[in-house]
Amino acid sequence: MQPKVRDGRRRGGRPKIDTPSPVDVHVGSRVRLRRTLLGMSQEKLGNAIGLTFQQVQKYERGANRIGASRLFDLSRVLDVPVAFFFEEMAAGGSERHAAPVGTSTESHDSDPMAKRETLELVRAYYRIPDATLRRRLFDLAKAMANYSSSVSK
Fold first, then answer.
1. Whole-structure pTM over 0.70, yes or no?
2. Are residues 78 and 150 in the same domain?
3. Are residues 101 and 131 in the same domain?
């Protein structure tokens, strides 16, 4: 499927595309995920990299493409390697055709990592100061999930 292009051209001569690239959407969602896991507001992230919170919103939605230098700044502020933003991408294809794993049938709402409940759970988990206790809670959650899936079959 070819992307829809408006008649007008942008300043750089590139046609304006009606829908954001799946790659830009994926990278933006990874920025949002990491920012939220750190408990950082869009305003605080924007201030750290010299942007307004509205610009951060556009990056997170994929409406604005993130340039290499900005991606480097984001990786520094969010304390992750640049590769983090591309993790879980499908292999192959050009940037217009590459898509995050599972996006063809999965909506943003069905992604458990996009849910506030998940983010709150992860934040609470990492607030537990005792590493042994954290590990026991992790093991308990896995055991409960395994039990639930075996019972429901």
1. no
2. no
3. no
